[in-house]
Amino acid sequence: AQSVTQPDIHITVSEGASLELRCNYSYGATPYLFWYVQSPGQGLQLLLKYFSGDTLVQGIKGFEAEFKRSQSSFNLRKPSVHWSDAAEYFCAVGEVGQGGKLIFGQGTELSVKP
Amino acid sequence: GAVVSQHPSRVICKSGTSVKIECRSLDFQATTMFWYRQFPKQSLMLMATSNEGSKATYEQGVEKDKFLINHASLTLSTLTVTSAHPEDSSFYICSARDSSKGRETQYFGPGTRLLVL
What we know:
The complex is a heterodimer. By secondary structure, chain A is mainly β. In chain A, 0% of the residues lie in helices and 52% in strands. Chain B is mainly beta. Chain B contains no helices and 11 strands. In chain B, the strands form 2 sheets. In chain B, strands 2, 4, 5, 6, 9, 10 and 11 form a 7-stranded mixed sheet that branches. A 4-stranded antiparallel sheet of chain B has the order 1-3-8-7, with no helix packed on it. The termini of chain B are far apart. The interface between A and B is medium-sized, with 22 and 26 residues.
């Protein structure tokens, strides 16, 4: 069965430091992959997505993610974190041919310290 | 960008009453919308897929008679929690798929926080 794993429940980084949030998936074929961000009490905002092509994907707010088929990973990165990046981050895989259903990882809560 | 709205943003109701939550795609047509439920500090769990003009498809374990979904137009889907009980208290989030903008891209509403007393 398809699944998404975000190994880190909570990460704390210093403002200005680099960030990498991990995401591993289990899927039979090449999946559609997404990263979303959620601020407290809010809905989800799409940061970036991967469907095909270049495995390094650029998103909004300075985020990028790299699809590595051999590792079944789609890690999210940002070279310099800002205090406003503190939020919950969700990785999701879209089920091809299933009408767009998304399976979400457990989420990673990012805290940013001054 | 694509905007999805939800109404109301928060609702408090008494146990046994029904609550309707609206999800609207404001600047695009959505033949498919999704309803999720999120408990505190947890991930989103898909409840059902709402297709315009047809019956919703419910995920395993979701009571279709309790969570009524109607998708009467290309821009509106509603979720009605019937005979709500305290255990139905949760954060309900909808999303809408913009088929014209690339496959499988969903845009999420801001969520509705339901508290059943």
